[in-house]
């Protein structure tokens, strides 16, 4: 952990790199788009800053055609907050469950949200073998997945079928329950893809992917979550924080200590 924190602190140690993170918090950008915000800095220097941010796992890079798009990865910042301050999610612990599609206020004059989309890319290093992480994401998800759709005070149970056509479900009572995701691709233990609303309501198409890469004796977990449709403005931030908490705190603690 100390070595990981050293790279994070190094990445945060320059004002240009902190500004880059500020820009990526607003939306993902290519190297050229970032360079446009620093007219007095060479493209080569921006690339060096991005490499340092990537080494600190604060930036996730995804290739799109001939371009590389950079995404903010706030998980290392959350780990720092967890270590010295407290739960990063204490004021939004139920964010994935308490999302509501508000199309009217009390006066009934709030307009319908227009079609939007978002894309969340996160990475977290787990000090555990890839096979163990894959089992935790699928067979053992009930042991660490904290969010619930079941009514407050009602005990619910999770099942995850890591096969094409399988489902990630939460059930309570005799016939009550919810589907968190439908599995449409599996390449165990490297990748699993699902379609599921994850608390989003209404006319929304949502999908998420776990990719597991063996790295430095552990596992680099890459999350991709995309959604499009009638999306409220706060949903992207709430889901981003929710994933940070689920994967960067709960799953990480589970696989590294169990």
Please state the average pLDDT score.
85
CATH class of the largest domain: Alpha Beta
Question: Secondary-structure element order, as H and E?
Answer: HHEHHEEHEHEEEEEEH
CATH-derived topology of the largest domain:
Alpha-D-Glucose-1,6-Bisphosphate, Chain A, domain 4
What is the number of E strands? 10
- Kindly report the name of the CATH homologous superfamily of the largest domain: START domain
End-to-end separation: 17 Å
Shape: globular
Over all CA atoms, what is the radius of gyration?
19 Å
Strand arrangement within the widest β-sheet reads 4-10-9-8-7-6-5
Oligomerization category of the chains in this entry: single chain
Low-confidence stretches: 87-113
Number of helices: 7
What is the architecture of the largest domain at the second tier of CATH?
2-Layer Sandwich
Structural class: alpha+beta
The tally of structural domains comes to 2
Structural summary, described in words:
This protein has 258 residues and is of the alpha+beta class. It has 2 domains: 71 residues, Arc Repressor Mutant, subunit A (Orthogonal Bundle); 154 residues, 2-Layer Sandwich (Alpha-D-Glucose-1,6-Bisphosphate, Chain A, domain 4). It contains 7 helices and 10 strands. The chain has a 7-stranded antiparallel beta sheet with strand order 4-10-9-8-7-6-5, covered by helices on one side. The protein has a 3-stranded antiparallel beta sheet with strand order 1-3-2. A hairpin with a 3-residue loop joins β6 and β7. The protein starts with a helix and ends with a helix.
